[in-house]
Specification:
The protein has two domains: 147 residues, Nucleotidyltransferase, domain 5, CATH 3.30.420; 179 residues, ATPase, nucleotide binding domain (Nucleotidyltransferase, domain 5), CATH 3.30.420.40. Helices cover 39% and strands 20% of the residues. It is built from 16 helices and 13 strands. The longest helix is centred in the last third of the chain and has 25 residues.
Length: 395
């Protein structure tokens, strides 16, 4: 009987999903969709690979519905669209795997206990990732589940890249730089090896630019350094997150402004970044279209910090052969790519304006000393691959 895998990426108010066939060594996406507005006005849309809407549903008075309620209905709907295939597993994006989980893992009660202990390290994401796992277990207790970790790709970085300058006792407890967006970076590393193996073997910076944003320095397809650290707050300016910040600012806010830890957490995770600087929006599309000078300042800071951090990663790599833009902003924002590359012209980067405008796969000018690419990421496909491989290894 043909087999299928569902992938799930759960957030606080959304649940992205995709269904993949799993026949032999090949697998293909069949359906992709998203439930948005969880907790307020839930809205489901599912499409086939051609973009045709297969179902769309809005829940009236659905603000009290939980992940379990949605997943029960979603999995029942999936059953009707398997086309005779058997659903053999669910693969989940889990943001934090800590110091120990460096490979995808079959979900067990002991694993869940360990992952719940990591919630303080990823409070914005981890609780929702785990809620989806628990919801699937409640409605389909016999369905195998696999956790895929955003931190895993960075696990083998050099020790100097992960070490923090704090007392060793704290380092021994796991207070270190982990890095995130690893599922996306792993997909890009594999894809780059397929389309340009010479570049993939070299020194490359990948810019995962979305509402959450980071850079990863890769050499030979392996993570050497990255901008996010102990938590997903670190590094670049993001939609609502501050990125790197002087720890003295945090002490000032706690000691002299009287903020509680909870208030400080909300400030750093939800009220900072692009929305904090602009006072307009966390959405880059809105900022690029806005005439408000504060919006321009937010865009300027966003691209300034990308270029500054990229310069640091060039030092980690000892040179640069390629720059890859990916994720929502990286794949779609022509002006952001241009502004970043203009700031990195000292590296010999030169863009071809027309190629950049049409989102070509290669956007550098012929005289550029660095290859500049745009590659679409596909975290769902990477999760599906890991899920299938993990379940087959355990058989």
């Amino acid at each position: 009987m043909p087999q299928a895998i569902i992938t799930l990426n759960a957030g606080s108010s959304s649940l992205k999903f995709a269904l993949f066939s799993a026949d032999g060594d090949d697998f293909n996406q069949i359906i992709a969709g998203k439930i948005e507005g969880i907790g307020t006005a839930p809205h489901l849309v599912a499409k086939d690979t051609g973009g045709k809407v297969l179902t769309e549903h809005r829940w009236r008075n659905g603000f009290n519905l939980t992940h379990e309620d949605f997943l029960r209905q979603l999995l029942d709907w999936i059953d009707d669209h398997l086309g005779g295939a058997e659903l053999i597993g669910a693969g989940h994006r889990v943001v934090h795997g800590g110091a120990h989980f460096c490979q995808p893992a079959r979900v067990t009660p002991s694993l869940m206990g360990a992952l719940k202990a990591l919630i303080p390290l990823a409070p914005l994401h981890q609780p929702h990732n785990l809620a989806a796992i628990e919801a699937v277990a409640a409605v389909r207790p016999h369905l195998a589940q696999v956790a895929c970790f955003d931190t895993a790709f960075h696990h083998d970085q050099p020790a100097v890249a992960t070490r923090l300058a704090i007392p060793r006792a704290l380092s021994a407890e796991g207070v270190k730089r982990y890095g995130f967006h690893g599922i996306s970076y792993e997909f890009i590393a594999r894809r780059l090896k397929e389309i340009n193996p010479v570049l993939a073997a070299g020194k490359v910076i990948v810019a995962h630019l979305g509402n959450g944003a980071s850079l990863c320095a890769m050499q030979g397809g392996r993570s050497i350094d990255t901008t996010m650290g102990f938590t997903a707050l670190d590094g670049l300016v993001m939609g609502t997150r501050c990125g790197s910040i002087d720890p003295g600012v945090l002490l000032y806010l706690l000691q002299h402004k009287g903020m509680t830890p909870e208030e400080l957490s909300q400030l750093l995770y939800d009220q900072s970044g692009l929305v904090g600087v602009s006072g307009v929006s966390s959405d880059m599309r809105a900022l690029l279209e806005s005439p408000d000078p504060r919006a321009r300042e937010a865009v300027e800071l966003f691209t300034y910090r990308i270029a500054r951090e990229a310069g640091a990663l060039v030092s980690s790599l000892g040179g640069l052969d390629g720059l890859v833009f990916t994720a929502g902003i990286g794949e779609n924002a022509v002006d952001i790519r241009r502004l970043v590359c203009e700031r990195l012209a000292w590296l010999g980067i030169s863009l071809e304006a027309e190629a950049n405008a049409r989102h070509a796969a290669i956007i550098n000018a012929p005289d550029s000393r660095v290859v500049v690419s745009v590659i679409s990421t596909d975290e769902e496909r990477m999760i599906a691959r890991h899920t299938i491989e993990t379940l087959r290894t355990l058989v």
